[in-house]
Amino acid sequence: MTTGYLNLVLHAHLPFVRHLDRDDRLEERWLFEAITETYIPLLQMFQRLVRDDVDFRVTLSLSPPLISMLADGLLQVRYRSYLRKLISLAEKEVVRTQDEPQFHTLAGEYLQRFLDIQQFFESYDGNILPAFGELRDAGKVELITSAATHAFLPYIQTDASLRAQIATAIDVFEHHFCFRPNGMWLPECAYTPRIEHHLQAYGIRYFFVDAHGLAAAQPRPVFGVASPILTHGGTAVFARDEASSQQVWSSESGYPGDFDYREYYRDIGYDLADDYIRPYIHPDGIRVNTGIKYYRITGTGGEKAPYDFARAREKAAVHAGNFLFNRQKQVEYLKRVMGRTPVITAPYDAELFGHWWYEGPIFIEMLLRKLHFDQTELKTIAPSEYLALYPDFQSCQLQMSTWGRGGYGDVWLNGQNDWIYPALHDCEQQMIHLANAHPTPNGLVEQALNQAARELMLAQSSDWAFIMDTGTMVDYAVKRTKLHIHRFRALANMIREEHIDTAYLANLHANDNIYPAISYQIYQTNIARDQISHTSSRLRVLMLSWEFPPLTVGGLARHTYDLSRHLVQQGIEVHVVTMAIGDYPLYETIEGVHVHRVRVLQPDGGEFTHFILQLNLMMLDACHAMVEQDGVTFDLIHAHDWLVCDVAKTLKQQFEIPLIATIHATEYGRNHGIYTDMQRHIHHLEWELTYEAARVIVCSTYMKQELETVFRLPSDKIDVLPNGVDRAILQAPATAQTPRQDVVAIDNWTPMVLFVGRLVREKGVHLLLAAIPSILAEFPQVKFVIAGKGPMQDDLVTQAQQLGIATHVDFAGFVSDEVRNGLLREADVAVFPSLYEPFGIVALEAMAARTPVVVADVGGLGDIVRHAHNGLKAFPNDVSSLAEQIKWLLREREFANRLADVAEQALSRFDWQHIASSTIGVYQLLFPGQIAVEMVR
């Protein structure tokens, strides 16, 4: 009986390194070392298992750059030379160590291994790719591939370029192996929802993510990482098992660090005398690893004991047994709780086995032999086989994730490598325009376009950004990135000018000869912004906001949505540039508003500054594309909050466009001061945005006073325009259904006190919870609903439990606008106990829904509510005062209804039509006499 399955996945990849100009490039050794220490040893090991009738399954991903290099005749010739030198050195070592028995034995074993490697290599005439195909044909290895040049897919800007990376990869794989792969290894396990329809279009049935990629999925996968899930498009997703990874990858507890294993960093290329080793290192005298290493790890100190092949092999067998034991116990538990047979997905970089961990291939061989001959209830399986076992897998929506440091994109976008993306995105846009401008192939131009596609793809390799982050070989990574971008731009200029330098093109094709069958037409697209008017005489506004529906984090999304659509109704042409979410299109019109979305990763914690940097870079690229390529010109920029400061300032200066800024809140106000480096950084950007802006809009007199005090802004530079509310969508239609029982466990007759907002300290939800015991003492049937999410949620749940009120408090989490509006209509009291609130639009929304409100007398809430006239005010940060106001409304229901009626009737000054007209009035201050009167009618 099978208790569980092991899905062992090895991803083999190296960047494309092939230099025609000289044969002693250090970087080509990456390939030669990997062939000698990883690829051929793994193949030899798998072939031994097949000869011994060991039944096993392993999934092996071969990246297109690696496939291309293994098949390249020039690199095969150079590898033969490398291997001959290595054998010569080993022969010399056998002689040198005759009087050192331990080292002499090792030298002899190395020599024999290198000879075996040479024999294996020549048995395939220098091209070892067919050996992988044989293992696939034997039913033992499932071969899959990766993106064309191992590009970091979430940072690719355009769908056309994403498609090119995936389509080219499939074509290369099919050319060499004569079948299409079922799966794809996403480079760096970097998932973005944008890739899914491309994967489906090319027949990819599954891919892999890191564990947290599945943990953050919605809904939460019921089987965790022990079973694949399906994306909404139907592609299967396997997630890395953390326990099996930890035992191999961990630098502290992983097997490769065992003291009996070979020490990677002690190599005779560095240890032996210069005169002796010189013929076997770089001609310039640069010391390099030769692959001959005589010491074991021994311990944490500098003293190293001689390496013992036999002892290390025995230890690999012990570790294989330990790994097997742990996986067996793991699947036994999982099967009991799952009700189906679990699968443990254990993915690793192939180069770990043999190159970094010399005994790695032995470990895998011992593991697979134990699984077969010990007849364990744990079996190996390929992903395609596991997917065939069950007809039903859970469907979930994944978020962006990687297996890199921190789990997001920090490795590939930080201060060391962020400079590459504006150039790469510019090249993407140029490639698409050039491809669209040449719909059919045409001789020399076609060759130039195909070579331009190669150069773009090579520049997109994730390896270059990765190397810049690690700090090793940085000069080479920088040079390669700049080289390919320069070559692409040179070709693009030749194509545009219709003058191709044939000698230059031939030279590029000889050097960067990857993917001979590539076609530039893969970049062609009809998804142009045809709907955008380039000749409109109306005032054209570029609005920058990091959030816009359906991406709704706070009130900013609703503000920009309502303002932009009402500006359009009054004759303004509005283009909103914002962040993409899910599968929503990168360009669409919504109620006449042109919405341009940019793809941005969304990391947390210390990576937040990198997220903001990336957001501004992506926005800048999108705006440049509109201005420089699509011919859209803007009359002014309207920026919302500090997150878009850099792009707003840059566009203002580059295109000499006036800038208006709306400041919705300040870091000083949120924290009641500036205390940390992050707060100082945000505070400076807020000040910078207000300094660069010609006019600054705020939503309340409170905020006006705050900006005058905190930023020393002159009073006549600030305009106070309130937030608005759309009463029509908040007042119940005749057919409206109650959302109560769909979202929260409340009977329709139970009194409900509602809070809506982000769960952050400044919103004061902890004060509301503290007030509940007093309220329940008089009204024991009341239910309290907290609608929203945020970083304080766990603390608030704990607080409710400690207060003994958990059964009376329902944390509803994030709710849709429709449900939120329904809850606002049905609540008996809406409470907003903020510590800091620049405006308080949700209080207006409660008023529009004819629900009585209790607010803290702070900020903009104090402007909106007149105590005992259209709502009640509590003293700020005062639990007792807050409880008394809520009890007053629960006790005096007629009084509460009267307050709600007065509040709803007085909302005309918060009407969006009026606010949009006032906003145009601010715009007019920048263009006196130039905005037609009919535009503001």
Automatic annotation (TrEMBL):
Name under which the protein is recorded: 1,4-alpha-glucan branching protein domain-containing protein
UniProt-listed Gene3D superfamilies: Families 57/38 glycoside transferase, middle domain, Glycogen Phosphorylase B, Glycoside hydrolase 38, N terminal domain
Domain Glycosyltransferase subfamily 4-like N-terminal: 553-727
Family: Belongs to the glycosyl hydrolase 57 family.
Domain of life assignment: Bacteria
The keyword Ribonucleoprotein appears for this protein: no
Bilayer-spanning residue ranges: none
SUPFAM superfamilies according to UniProt: Families 57/38 glycoside transferase middle domain, Glycoside hydrolase/deacetylase, UDP-Glycosyltransferase/glycogen phosphorylase
Pfam family, one: Glycos_transf_1
InterPro entries for the chain: 57_glycoside_trans_central, BE_C, Branching_enz_MT3115-like, Glyco_hydro/deAcase_b/a-brl, Glyco_hydro_38_N_sf, Glyco_hydro_57/38_cen_sf, Glyco_hydro_57_N, Glyco_trans_1
Keyword Membrane appears in the UniProt entry: no
Keywords, comma-separated and alphabetical: Carbohydrate metabolism
Residue ranges of every copy of the Glycoside hydrolase family 57 N-terminal domain listed in the record: 8-390
Glycosyl transferase family domain boundaries: 746-904
Lineage: Bacteria, Bacillati, Bacillota, Bacilli, Bacillales
Domain 1,4-alpha-glucan branching enzyme C-terminal: 424-523
